[in-house]
Design goal:
Elements lengths: L6 H6 L5 H23 L8 E5 L5 E3 H15 L4 E6 L6 E2 L6 E9 L10 E9 L8 H4 L8 E7 L3 E6 L5 E5 L5 E5 L10 E3 L10 H11 L11 E2 L5 H11 L2 E4 L12 E2 H14 L3 E3 L16 E2 L1 E4 L1 H12 L2
Parallel strand pairs: 3-5, 11-12, 11-13
Antiparallel strand pairs: 1-2, 3-4, 5-6, 6-7, 7-8, 8-9, 9-10, 13-17, 14-16, 15-17
Helix pairs in contact: 2-3, 5-8
This protein binds 6-O-phosphono-beta-D-fructofuranose.
Length: about 325
């Protein structure tokens, strides 16, 4: 019988600040609790619409609201957290404490999957807080390269937590007794892939170089790429990124012309940045098509970005197409 290290013991052994480990443990415990609520579905009356919209003007599901409250309450009660920001909250929420960390999160990513019993997830990013004053929104606007921890929980056939702290990417599976057990140590992504993930129904709205790139994949071995590609789209970034961490691939949510003033659909601070840190630490790459995501200086809390991430050579193939004109 294999024995697995649990998250508490694993955290203990990490070369990181004890306060940061406390924040990560708090998020992990809350994700385990969220997993229970997600799994109970109709039994707890938590499916369906909440009847409200969030700051992005998206219809909120009941579970968006429930999970946002669960994470917000847990983080406000966690001593080293100076402030939090969520996809579901218009403004940042300072805790009144000074120093420690700022946490940004998407409490339930892919929420259109909830009512069809398909995978959803929670994404989080931890940034350093100012040491000498209460945090304000400007303090959250740090490039992703500043993140001191990031990760996600995926609520699928198994509930898993995938995280990066000082270095490396490690995956934990939630056991029946509520413990997170290290089942996927030192996750790495192969540089080459023949699997892409994109919502092709938007194809006619993409910029010409993106259309060319995807068209090349669709032409398979008869086209410029000289090999056949497979396509997958779960419609929950967490689940698509998880697949890429497990077996490689490329995920794209490019700019499109429907709302030309919006740079993309996905949010920089609590979707693109934490996923980019995980992907890079696993040996992959993450860009907006051309520029490294982790170097983007945020100007707004709910800023959107185009996202191209995954197997390094495939991300480079997109960059080559985008810069070819
Ligand atoms: O947060 C936005 C999100 O739900 C992602 O998780 C997912 O990758 C994407 O939107 C799905 O987009 P679409 O509705 O175009 O399939």
């Amino acid at each position: 019988m294999t024995t697995f290290v649990d998250l508490a013991a694993w955290l203990e052994a990490q070369p990181a600040d004890a306060a940061l480990k406390d924040v990560v443990a708090t998020i992990a415990k809350t994700c385990a609790d969220i997993s229970g609520v997600v799994a109970s579905g109709a039994l707890s009356g938590s499916l369906g619409a909440a009847g409200s919209t969030n700051v992005q003007d998206e219809e909120q599901k009941k579970l968006d609201v429930i999970t946002n409250d669960m994470l917000s309450d847990a983080l406000k009660a966690c001593a080293p957290v100076a402030g939090l920001a969520s996809e579901e909250l218009e403004e940042v929420e300072p805790t009144g404490r000074v120093g420690g960390f700022l946490v940004t999160f998407d409490p339930l990513d892919g929420s259109s999957n909830i009512d069809i019993n398909a995978p959803v997830g929670t994404i989080f990013s931890v940034l350093p807080a100012p040491a000498d004053q209460a945090a304000v929104e400007a303090d959250f606007l740090q490039p992703g390269a500043n993140q001191v921890a990031a990760g996600y929980a995926v609520y699928g056939p198994q509930t898993m937590l995938v995280l990066t702290l000082a270095d490396g990417v490690n995956g934990f599976t939630l056991a029946a007794d509520g413990q997170w057990l290290l089942t996927h140590p030192a996750i790495t992504i192969k540089p080459d892939t023949a699997e892409f993930a994109i919502n092709v129904s938007n194809q006619r709205h993409w910029a010409a170089p993106m259309r060319r790139y995807v068209d090349g994949c669709l032409q398979g071995k008869d086209g410029p790429r000289g090999k056949n590609f497979n396509m997958r789209w779960v419609a929950a970034m967490v689940a698509d990124v998880h697949r890429i961490l497990m077996r490689g691939g490329i995920f794209l949510y490019p700019w499109d012309a429907r709302e030309p003033d919006k740079p993309g659909k996905l949010r920089l601070m609590y979707e693109a940045n934490p996923m980019s840190l995980l992907i890079e630490r696993a040996g992959g790459a993450s860009t907006d098509g051309v520029t490294r995501t982790l170097d983007v200086q945020p100007t707004k809390l709910h800023q959107r970005v185009p996202v191209v991430l995954g197997s390094a050579n495939e991300v480079e193939a997109v960059r080559a197409e985008m810069t070819a004109g």
